[in-house]
Structure to design on (275 residues):
């Protein structure tokens, strides 16, 4: 008979506490159903059937935790994801940013970097890339390594070209990369002002003052308390009148910080810090 991995609530809590105490990654405030699905998926593909087996591997096999971390964080992303978001950014936010002599942008939860390369292209076209520093952070070192490379699969370029055009892109998209075999390499000039670093949104503090923070499709995996922590951090990290861009399924509606922000664009979840 085939065996299936199981993870009753109290066993899942034990695993999450172990991961926090031993490795310093707190997943206790991630949406329960989603984190359970991810852990079960990891157990299934690793041939682990019970929480105690998983505990054993986490404690005794040093390759287990990096694989666990890699699997439980959802890293799906794309270039110019939700093109309307970038279009609204170009129209409503970029003209304001252009009035600053120097611009700092933080991509929090940048995954493999498609979002930050999209932003660099947009800034280049608006004449702002030279005076912008782009900070791209994530909890997962594997995806950060990929982001630094700026190499993406060629097979996605058709979709990304469409997204780019719909986002208000002004050039020929393929002029930004060189194709080689099955991959494309984005121009080095785009990453000149990018800084990549590990940063955990629920444990680490503020590290700069930004004019714009993008944290899209990250808080969707957090419970209310973690979302609260995260927005506290963004409020501390934004200059007055700085902008915050969230994913289409995210909002500040139930956050204690809601009054510190005004909506710039409700449809595309873009806010501005007003206190
Ligand atoms: C679904 S991706 C979103 C990528 C990109 N922002 C986008 O919208 O396309 C979510 C990213 O958040 C990262 N993440 C999850 N928890 C995090 C945390 N506590 N701190 C920082 N990054 C986190 C994951 O590793 C993953 O790369």
């Amino acid at each position: 008979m085939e065996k299936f991995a199981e993870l009753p609530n109290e066993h899942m809590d034990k695993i999450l506490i172990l991961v926090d105490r031993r490795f310093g990654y707190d997943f206790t405030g991630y949406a329960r159903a989603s984190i359970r699905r991810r852990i079960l998926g990891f157990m299934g593909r690793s041939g682990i059937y019970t929480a105690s087996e998983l505990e054993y591997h986490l404690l005794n096999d040093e390759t287990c935790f990096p694989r666990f971390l890699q699997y439980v964080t959802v890293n799906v992303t794309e270039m110019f994801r939700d093109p309307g978001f970038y279009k609204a950014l170009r129209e409503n936010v970029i003209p304001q940013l252009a009035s600053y002599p120097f611009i700092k942008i933080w991509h929090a939860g940048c995954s493999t970097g498609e979002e930050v390369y999209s932003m660099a292209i947009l800034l280049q076209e608006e004449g702002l890339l030279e005076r912008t520093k782009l900070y791209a952070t994530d909890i997962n070192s594997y995806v950060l390594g990929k982001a630094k490379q700026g190499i993406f699969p060629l097979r996605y370029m058709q979709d990304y070209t469409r997204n780019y055009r719909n986002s208000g892109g002004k050039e020929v998209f393929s002029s930004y990369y060189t194709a080689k075999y099955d991959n494309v390499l984005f121009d080095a000039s785009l990453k000149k002002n990018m800084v990549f670093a590990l940063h955990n949104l629920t444990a680490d503090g503020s590290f700069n003052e930004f004019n714009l923070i993008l944290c899209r499709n990250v808080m969707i995996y957090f419970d209310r308390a973690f979302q609260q922590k995260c927005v506290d951090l963004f409020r501390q990290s934004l200059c007055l009148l700085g902008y915050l861009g969230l994913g289409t399924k995210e909002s500040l509606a139930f956050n204690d910080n809601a009054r510190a922000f005004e909506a710039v664009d409700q449809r595309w979840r873009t806010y501005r810090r007003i206190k």
Summary: The mean pLDDT is 96. Residues 9-72 form one domain. DSSP finds ten helices and ten strands in the chain.
